[in-house]
Design brief:
Layout: E1 30-37, E2 43-47, E3 54-59, E4 69-72, H1 80-84, E5 91-92, E6 98-102, E7 113-126, E8 129-130, E9 133-138, H2 155-167, E10 178-185, H3 186-204
Parallel strand pairs: 5-8, 6-9
Antiparallel strand pairs: 1-4, 1-7, 2-3, 4-6, 7-8, 7-9, 7-10
């Protein structure tokens, strides 16, 4: 009895979102984003690194909601190369590179993959660790798709992103160890993505 082979790109088992998906169709300019959280979520979800499933991390303490789709770029890792591009961080946070994606049409479910065009980012320092938030637009989006740099986006959108990440871990009465040290444009963002790809290769191989 002959056995049938699975035709590419069919997967017999679900690929791990971090390690099993490709970085993107044209990295570092256009990458895949695996979405963990939508602007409609009041729960902080994040990838369980062992299983690849989405785990409930915590309910958001404040009333702040994510102003954009939020997830990570597959096959990236924040370590020494990413930290070298930070203003003040001394090490990477050991996670895949975070990404925020703007979409004109509401996307209200997580665990989706999309193509994202890099336009900029936030230099986030979380207790000495580089925790950059890459900012991107949904490729071919009818409103934001032509944006090529963060300067092409309304300032208020960047203000919302910066305010969200500067306050989303805030607990009244406790000192916050997280700072958003700067907003940067496309050129630096591409360097951060490339550095995260290099850090992944060093840590996990091809």
């Amino acid at each position: 009895m002959s056995s049938k082979k699975f035709p590419p790109p069919f997967y017999r088992w679900r690929p791990h979102p971090w390690h099993g998906l490709e970085v993107g169709p044209n990295p570092p300019e256009v990458v895949h984003a695996f979405i963990e959280i939508t602007p409609f979520d009041l729960i902080k979800y994040e990838l369980d690194k062992s299983t690849g499933y989405i785990r409930v991390d915590r309910p958001q303490r404040s009333s702040s909601q994510p102003p954009a789709l939020y997830g990570f770029i597959p096959r990236t890792y924040c370590d020494e190369n990413v930290a070298e591009l930070s203003l003040n961080a001394t090490r990477g946070d050991g996670d895949p590179l975070d990404i925020c994606v703007l979409s004109e049409r509401p996307i209200n479910r997580g665990e989706v993959i999309l193509n994202a065009r890099i336009v900029g980012g936030l230099d986030v320092n979380d207790n000495g660790e580089a925790d950059d938030k890459i900012i991107a637009v949904l490729e071919n989006d009818n409103v934001w798709g032509k944006a090529r740099d963060i300067s092409d986006l309304p300032e208020v959108l960047i203000e919302r992103l910066r305010h969200y990440f500067a306050t989303y871990k805030l607990v009244p009465g406790q000192e916050l160890s997280l700072t958003v040290d700067r907003v940067y444009g496309r050129e630096h963002a591409l360097r951060v993505v490339q550095a995260a790809m290099q850090d992944y290769f060093i840590e996990y191989g091809d």
